[in-house]
Amino acid sequence: MKDKPHFHGHRQRLKERLCKDASAMADYEILELLLGQTLLRRDTKPIAKDLLARFGSLGGVFRAPQSQLEEMDGIGPGVLAFFTLLREFWTRMAEEPVRAGETLSDPEAIRKAAMARIGNLSREEFWIALVNNGNKVIYWSRMSEGTVDKTAVYPREVVALALRHNASGIAVAHNHPGGNPAPSQEDMMITMDIATLCQDMGIRLLDHVIVTVDGFYSFREKGRL
């Protein structure tokens, strides 16, 4: 075909290898094909290799802030929108137990959902899950968002939300953009305030989880609840 891109045959061979044995492909080849979904008429191999060199791994590319991706040659609005779509797709899969209202045998599902949803954000967000008497999730949503190291959390609003939804238990989560999930003194004070109010109102506090990209701190697991 006239004017066919020089890499057309290479991309087709990659697709054939993908269908035959995806596990045998190199990371940059997987990224090549992903980029090729939007960069139809551009050789994506050098872009894929540049991204991996900059961010270290597929996960690093996947979690990279948009501001840093924008600095890379070949990354425009189309690729950024596609990456946002991929992240949201992956996040919603991780959130399925809480989004589908499943029964929680332990707060692990909340931790996984929180890590996927807010673990890689550059600002703090505070999320809450509400459960009924049977530990079935009836609500999962953001309560507040803040700055790189702080978000406003009001224990009375947390408990008031649980009462409005007739919840018998809650689990709360927030992120530490700095990468260290260890609680601050303020985190501990807020957790104790929420726990006290929950006890007064007969509501179970299942856990408070602090998450990062690849780690978490559970007040329940550490024996602080």
Give keywords.
225 residues; alpha+beta; Cytidine Deaminase, domain 2; DNA polymerase, domain 1; elongated; five-stranded mixed β-sheet; 5 strands; 10 helices; 2 domains
Structure description:
This protein has 225 residues and is of the alpha+beta class. The chain has two domains: 8-92, DNA polymerase, domain 1, CATH 1.10.150; 102-218, Cytidine Deaminase, domain 2, CATH 3.40.140. The protein has ten helices and five strands, in the order H-H-H-H-H-H-H-H-E-E-H-E-H-E-E. Strands 2-1-3-4-5 form a five-stranded mixed β-sheet. The longest helix is centred in the middle third of the chain and has 18 residues, at 77-94. The protein is elongated and about 70 Å long. The mean pLDDT is 90.
CATH class of the largest domain: Alpha Beta
Order of helix and strand elements from N to C terminus: HHHHHHHHEEHEHEE
Q: How many DSSP helices?
A: 10
Provide the number of structural domains: 2
Strand order of the largest sheet: 2-1-3-4-5
What is the second-level CATH architecture of the largest domain? 3-Layer(aba) Sandwich
**CATH overall fold name of the largest domain:** Cytidine Deaminase, domain 2
- Residue windows where pLDDT falls under 50 for at least 5 positions: none
Percent helix, as a range, is 40-55%
- Strand elements, count: 5
What's the pLDDT, averaged over the residues?
90
Shape: elongated
Query: Structural class, judged by helices and strands?
Result: alpha+beta
Beta-strand percentage? 15-25%
